Amino acid sequence: MRRAIFPGSFDPITLGHYDIIERGITLFDELIIAIGINADKKYMFSLEERQQFIREAFKDEPKIKVVTYEGLTVDFAKKVDAGFILRGLRNPGDFEFEKAIAHTNRKLSEIETVFLLTSSGKSYISSSIVRDVIRNGGDYSILVPDTVVVSS
Ligand code: ADP
Fold first, then answer.
1. How many whole angstroms separate alpha carbon 145 and alpha carbon 143?
2. Looking at the 3D structure of the chain, how many domains does it have?
3. pLDDT below 50 — which residues of the chain?
4. Is the CB of 90 under 6 A from ligand 1?
C-alpha cells in the first residue's frame, strides 16, 4: 500500500492545500492529512476546528484521513507506516525552504518527499493571507473550501 502524509498547520485549510490534496490522492492509496501541533505557535483556529474543516471537505473521499501529530514529521510517518511525505511548492522561497527540510528528512529516514507544483491561479493563496483577510473583515470564502466557517 502506497501511503503518504501531507503535513502542515492548515490554519485554516485553503484552496491551495485542497488542490494539492485532490491531485496528491491520485498518486497514493491513502493520504493522511497530518496537522502538526507546535506548542510555540499561536493559531487562529483551534486544532478541533482545523481538523473539522478538512474532514468535512473530504468526507466523501475514503482514501483521505485527518489526524494530528506532535514531534518530528519523519517519526510520525514511520509510526503510521507512510513511505512518502507530500508537500506543495508555490515559489522559489518554498523551494529553498522545502529542499532543506526534505534533505534533512532523507538523512533521518528512508522517507521520500514528493512535491507537487501549485496549480496556476492558486500560487498566491496562503493560510496567513486568509487569516489577514478574516481579521480585516474581507471575503475569505473565495480562498478556502466552503467547509471553513468563521464563527463570530
Ligand atoms: P506549514 O506550517 O508546514 O508551512 P502549511 O499549512 O502552511 O504548513 O502548508 C502545508 C503545505 O501546503 C506546504 O507544503 C505548503 O507549501 C503547501 N501549500 C500551501 N499553500 C499552497 C498553495 N497555494 N499551493 C500549493 N501548495 C501550497
1. 7
2. 1
3. none
4. yes
